[in-house]
Amino acid sequence: MLLEFSIQMISITEKTLQDLQFPTILETISGICNTEIGKEKALKITPFREKENLMQALMQTSEYVSSFQNNNAIPNHGFDAITHEIKFLSIEDSFLEVGSFRKIATLSSTVNAMLQFLKKFDDYYPNINARASRVEFTKEIVTLIDVVVDKYGEIKDNASPALSDIRRNMNLVRGKVNQSFGIALQQYNGLGYLDDIKESFVQNRRVLAVLAMHRRKVRGTILGSSKTGSIAYIEPEMTLKYSRELSNLEYEEKEEITCILKQLSNAIRPFVPLLKEYQEFLSDIDVIAAKAKYAEKINGLLPNITEERRLYFREAYHPILYLTNKQKKEITYPQTIELQQENRIIVISGPNAGGKTISLKTIGLLQLMLQSGMLIPVHERSETFLFDRILTDIGDNQSIENHLSTYSYRLKNMNYFLKKCNRRTMFLIDEFGTGSDPELGGALAEIFLEEFYHREAFGIITTHYANLKILANELPFATNANMLFDEKSLEPMYKLVLGQAGSSFTFEVAQKNGIPFGLINRAKKKIEVGKVRFDKTIANLQKERSKLEKTSQNLKEEETRAREEGKKMESINSKIKQKLESYQELYDSNQKAIYIGQKIDDLAERYFNNKNKKELIGEFLKIVEIENSKRKKATVKETKAKEAKKKEIIEEVKIQVEEIRKEKKEKKLKPVIEKPRPVLKIGDRVRMLDGKAVGSIDKIEKNKAVVNYGLFTSKVSLDELDLVEAVKK
To answer: What is the pTM of this model?
Structure first.
């Protein structure tokens, strides 16, 4: 829900814009714009000074993003800039060329189409239409130009009565020129005076290509010759008179067109302020469209803007890093951070290259983008309020121009912070307190932090100083945070965790990078035991947290898998239950049929013995009556349902039987892999394939062998023998 705000001045310095890489965002948006004026405007975007205008800009961008998904896409807003034409029309008695009027007409038509569309779809785009409603709708500009200029950017024949007469006469004279030229061409060509090309154009006039040796024989005016001098270009005498007449008419046409353009320029001149407004409107739409397209690229949306002092960015991405990683096909890790009255300062600590600065910049840049009318890549349940100032101290701030060291510059910056910091300020400081003696610089940084805290400012700082970590732990409305690290590999996990300070892992990182263990121990002895123990305790706590984080993630994954398995088991159990019920019903039905069948069999046997029909019929009717007494009279619907269910059960059984048959058939058809049969030789010990007695081969004739079993011999086919032992060579 968006709230109304009172007018409040917002002040953000150029340094903050540079620190948070805001110009990079503007360059990307500028590149998306369609028009040159739009590109220039995009590069000049700054945070809005009035909240009312900011809210309208945010809603306009959000509305344009919605046009990508609905069926009422906003029409084309592209145009050719008419800045030059507007300046020229502002000069008295000046007039525009015909092409400029076509540009003005196109611009006016585009604006009219946009105004009509937004008015029609005001329900979809109320805030963009609110911007459009300040622009005047008129067709007069287009009407005035269309009377004079055609769609190809040429002056129409009927632009004035005089021009119409001139062009009619010009067409008649051109006809005479062509006719007289055709006669001369035919005459001199017949005499063989012309070159193969016969004719050409010189000074925009049609001429005969006469061979140089015959040029004196052709009556007319020589207008030029070929490079080699072999051809003379002559305008025939009979054509010359009409050509002069045509030249005079062309001069008259030019004069009349100048007069028409002057009249049209005077008619359009009163609309100059409106044309400026048109160009301004379309370029504004171009910037809104570019912001919307950028928002779509980064999955940007409009979070809830609240009057409560709370910043909650859930699953926030750094937009520049997100697009860079997307191009490289690498993962970008989102961060979740919350600042509120009861938790207004966060101190992030931990080793370098863990993502502390990126987390800091992400929050600052997203807040800056939002206050400049851009949508940001966060979860839809995120929310924030608007700051009057965003103060930053990020990166190497050594001032070469002012001959200031890094620390001097930072102190100067802190002085500025102290002057401007209040409860509607957000400050972002990277590596707070560095640049001086750790003891003295840390103490001063501690005082600065306390001052910012008492002024109720919101802020995020990154530091390695233990005293600042302790202070954040002691202040009720401040908190420590760290970037998670893998306890074994010491690789960053790029996840911000609130509530606990981070170890710098100084000695662990040194050991990992091959620094001898003895040197590390000597370094430990150089510093106070308390500091080592303090840092070690933090490191251990951080390792434990990392372990818990991993365990929690593994448990979540296992829980998800167990839930999925449970669902599968429930589904299988349900199917089995249905099948059992179906089989039970079928079994009961079959048992009943068997029972009745037995009774009828008994009756048949009794009738066979006594041939008493009366008794048979009586007993049979008795059975029928007993069975009918068990039945309820079913409705037609119930009968059909029962039959359908019975059919369903039978079909299911059939399917089961078919599957069993299919499996058996496949087993039968499954090819048996036969071992390669050995080549049998005389002396080999063999036995019959279906026998147990072993004998030796005495003789082989064709495909049969004589096998000696000791007491007797037998003649057997070689295919029926199996090798037991080959003869030893």
So the answer is: 0.66
